[in-house]
Amino acid sequence: MQSNPTTLADWLALLESRHFKAIDLGLERVAQVKERLAIRFKCPVIVVGGTNGKGSTCAMLESILLRAGYRVGLYIKPHFLHFNERARLRGECASDAALIASFEAVEAARGDISLTYFEFTTLAIVHLFAQQDLDAVILEVGLGGRLDAVNVFDGDVAIVTSVDIDHVDYLGDTREKIGFEKAGIFRAGKPAICADPVAPQSLVQHAEQIGADLWLFGRDFNYSGDKQQWNYGGRGQRRNSLGYPNLRGANQLLNASAVLAALEVLRDRLPVGAQEVRNGLTMVDLPGRFQVLPGRPTVVLDVAHNPHAAAALAQNLGNMGFHRFTFAVFGSMLDKDIDGVIAQLKGIVDHWCVTDLPLPRAASAQQIEEKLLRAGVTPNQQPGEEKSIEKFTSPADAYANAMSRAREDDRIVVFGSFLTVAGVMSARNR
């Protein structure tokens, strides 16, 4: 009998090589292993899904609950530099040893059941949380909702942040189809919070059909405010004079109001004071979501990889003030709506540094260049214009080129796939 790996890196390499399909939708296999592991929680579980805004919402929930003194487990993904980033216990990344112990538990429980990398690691991380004495568990849903591995776990509260077109091959090509998939994380008799200002009818109908307690933005909770502060209003709770979250972006108050709606729902089990909310929002930290790095030229990291997120990125860039030229370091998976992303940003970016990514399903720099040209991005077409498209084999090389060309009054926007941002983060840390 072959022995298990002894290091986290070897475990991850084994999992990546084992299952023939990277995405294998369906819950039957995962549910079987979950039952064998006997994973149960006595504390509240908050499940967070949606097209965009999931990571920000999870980070704000964690930050507020930590400031309130609670012991929190957070499962968030994907990671940038280290797998341990996906499993946070009491505000810190889980250790290799803790993760390996749970990997071994899942391996022992699965028997001959085949699991994808994502399914195996999801079970392992949630198993790890179940071994801890926690006050709250926050689980970020991956692709979709209804058939995502996280959906084998019942949430006491479920949040859908936004619904937009993404993962068309798996989820459908309309907001109504995708809304139904996202609503799959709702549970009968449990609060179901939707922060999308225009909730798809399919999501509303599904919540009603299963008897979930649906909280809709604009009907059951809302926000108001000015440039200095904002206020939250829910069904039975108001929070006034709040500082803006320490996460830049046009949609962060939508996400923050969904967070406060969830905390309103849980206030008997997880009471949180006004100052803890303020501190949690002002101290929240989440890499790669309109993250503006210190220094000159200005460098922005953003994992915008679909048109909805790209539109928010464009709005945020427009609010930044004057920059002489904008350089883009951009790489994407081929199954994304790259044309839709380009359409949102082609009027803002002057110099495109497009890059290959180290995955077979990534778009090549050549393919992205062709899409840019078809979208009308033409280098130096007009006299006096400075426009360019350059191709690179890695995000690090693309970033190095942008840095070599940019002046102090320029800015560099690194966006697209997590791998694009992670590649630049890794290069900066060397």
CATH class of the largest domain: Alpha Beta
> Radius of gyration from the CA trace?
22 Å
Strand percentage, roughly?
15-25%
Number of helical segments with 4 or more residues: 15
**How much helix, percentage-wise, in residues?**
25-40%
Q: What is the name of the CATH architecture of the largest domain?
A: 3-Layer(aba) Sandwich
Which class do the helix and strand fractions yield?
alpha/beta
| Annotated CATH topology of the largest domain | UDP-N-acetylmuramoyl-L-alanine:D-glutamate ligase
- Tell the overall outline: globular
Low-confidence stretches: none
Count the domains. Answer: 2
How many beta strands in the DSSP annotation?
17
List descriptors.
Protein-Tyrosine Phosphatase, Chain A, 15 helices, single chain, 17% strand, UDP-N-acetylmuramoyl-L-alanine:D-glutamate ligase, 6-stranded mixed β-sheet, 8-stranded mixed β-sheet, alpha/beta, 430 residues, globular
Structural notes for this entry:
This protein is an alpha/beta fold. The chain folds into two domains: about 10-285, Mur-like, catalytic domain (UDP-N-acetylmuramoyl-L-alanine:D-glutamate ligase, 3-Layer(aba) Sandwich), CATH 3.40.1190.10; about 290-430, Protein-Tyrosine Phosphatase, Chain A (Alpha-Beta Complex). It has 15 helices and 17 strands. Strand 14, helix 12 (about 340-345) and strand 15 (about 350-355) form a beta-alpha-beta unit. The longest helix has 15 residues, at about 95-110.
